[in-house]
Design goal:
The complex is a heterodimer of chains A (114) and B (143).
Chain A lengths: L2 E7 L5 E9 L4 H13 L4 E12 L1 H15 L4 E5 L3 H10 L6 E3 L2 H8 L1
Parallel strand pairs in A: 2-3, 3-4, 4-5
Antiparallel strand pairs in A: 1-2
Chain B lengths: L2 H5 L2 E10 L5 H12 L6 H21 L5 E9 L2 E8 L22 H10 L2 E7 L3 E9 L3
Antiparallel strand pairs in B: 1-2, 2-3, 3-5, 4-5
Helix pairs in contact in B: 2-3, 3-4
Chain lengths: 114, 143
């Protein structure tokens, strides 16, 4: 069980949080810390790249929802990059496809922030 | 034995006890996936099972008080898998079988319960702060 979190600055004041591995009740606090740190630093337009994520559960979804709520308070947004069909299915059945912008690639997710 | 009887024929029971701590949930997930792999489930169905079991364990952890365990019992049939997940201090109500808890009692784990209901073919659960949590779910091959 592992989670990899890599944060990098992109153009246009956007930050990309690249995640890899499994996001569950054990690993989601690490993801939450990374997102919280960015928001605390005043970065409100985020792309969260889930392309290398193999698994996500409700605690992981909760972290993403919490991040989105916080950035929206500051006029920002969170766009997701997701290509894994199983993870897309989770966003579908929970209705989160209507709340997050979900894109097939990072370029599209960043462009939609602008 | 006709086809319907054969489909529910019991193949075996596997029991697993893990500490009620987040770092052990992946062990339960992988163990149940290994059991499901012995049945003719599709890859997608096995992923559904993994998520269902993990959500159930997470609910048990959220309700466990201190040093507790999670007991997982998997009953494999020819074309279905029934998994019971209960926290170690679970005490059945006087009615015995698990039932739906009052909505207020499960408000906190709404997303987890919702996911299990969506991904499994049957779910019965009892989540009670006093008596602990028990969730019984069944996944049917190809349903």
């Amino acid at each position: 069980m592992d989670i990899k979190v890599h944060v990098r600055e992109s153009e246009d004041d956007a930050y990309v949080v690249e995640l890899g591995g499994e996001i569950d009740v054990y690993t989601s606090p690490k993801v939450k810390d990374a997102i919280t740190e960015l928001i605390d630093q005043g970065h409100y337009n985020l792309v969260i790249n889930l392309e290398k994520v193999r698994y996500i559960d409700s605690t992981g979804l909760g972290v993403l929802i919490g991040g989105l709520k916080r950035v929206r308070e500051h006029g920002g947004t969170v766009n997701l990059v997701c290509t894994n069909p199983q993870i897309k299915k989770i966003f579908d059945i929970t209705g989160l496809v209507k709340i997050f912008g979900i894109f097939d690639d990072e370029a599209g997710a960043k462009k939609a922030l602008a | 034995m006709n086809a319907a009887e054969r489909s529910i024929e019991h193949l075996g029971t596997v029991e697993l006890r893990i500490p009620s701590k987040p770092e052990w949930v992946a062990v339960a997930r992988l163990a149940v996936a290994a059991i499901a792999n012995r049945l003719p489930f599709s890859v997608e169905e096995i992923e559904d099972l993994k998520l269902g079991i993990a959500e159930a364990c997470t609910i048990c952890i959220q309700h466990s008080a201190g040093e507790a365990t999670i007991d997982i019992t998997c009953d494999a049939a020819v074309s279905s898998l029934r998994v019971e997940v209960r926290d170690g201090r679970y005490r059945a109500s006087s009615e015995g079988a698990p039932k739906r808890a009052p909505a207020a009692a499960v408000e906190g784990e709404g997303l987890g319960i919702f996911l299990i209901q969506a991904l499994m073919d049957n779910l019965e659960y009892s989540v009670d702060p006093a008596n602990g949590a028990q969730l019984v779910m069944t996944k049917v091959v190809g349903a």
